[in-house]
Amino acid sequence: MKARLQEPPVPQMDLRSDIPHSARIYDYVLGGKDNFPADREAAEQMLRGWPSLRASMRQSRAFMHRVTRYLAAEQGIRQFLDVGTGIPTEPNLHQVAQGIAPDSQVVYVDNDPMVLVHARALLTSSAEGRTAYVQADMRDPHSIVAAPQVHNTFDLSRPVALSVIAVLQFVPDDLDPVGIVRRLLEPLPSGSFLALSMVTTDSNPAIADVVREYNARGINVQARTRGQVEKFFEGLDPVDPGVVLVHRWRPDGSATGLDDADVAMYGGVARKP
After folding, report:
1. Which of 37, 119, 207, 228 is in the most buried spot, having the most CB atoms within 10 Å?
2. Average model confidence (pLDDT) for the chain?
């Protein structure tokens, strides 16, 4: 039996289908259907520049699945705050978590109107668990941590997993992304976890061409080194193996045949003391 929370209203909006959008490019590369010609043309140009882009994005998604399973099965986490959710792609985070622990509770957060249009797909929960959706921008962390959906869904005396997967590359350094993540973590109790991933060019110089293509099309992307990604985890207790290319984080055998040069994402998990 499925339980559905009240769906957020879908306001009138201009999706600007004539301009490529990062979430829709991601959706197209992963084989989704929620994209427009401008997104597909941009994605194909990027794939011509670096054919491994599709494999890298799939590994980023697989990283989220492994992290969620690890936190639910091995750390007993039952509350997940997923910031930068993106267009729903099954299995979504709540499906992975509730497949292990049906009483898991998930709050999704995104500022993309396209995600809001599809939010009902994120609100189908197990009967024992709960899901909710917050339309907010992570660049304003207070709008997230103060959202009624967060306080009505979670017991903030119990640990929460903050998941920030494949989104921080869209937050430039002048907006203090490290500070944003710390402000999101601040109200979460001891024993909570941070899981994040972001784009790097460390593994293959050709990835810089994809980054330039994003920026040329008005989608600001900033790649980061391993050292820069590790700064997001300062003050936290890292989970082995630390910050690594996402296909190397507790691999489950699904990434056979991939070289490091095929993956453009660093990822890691750490516990709040």
Report:
1. 207
2. 91
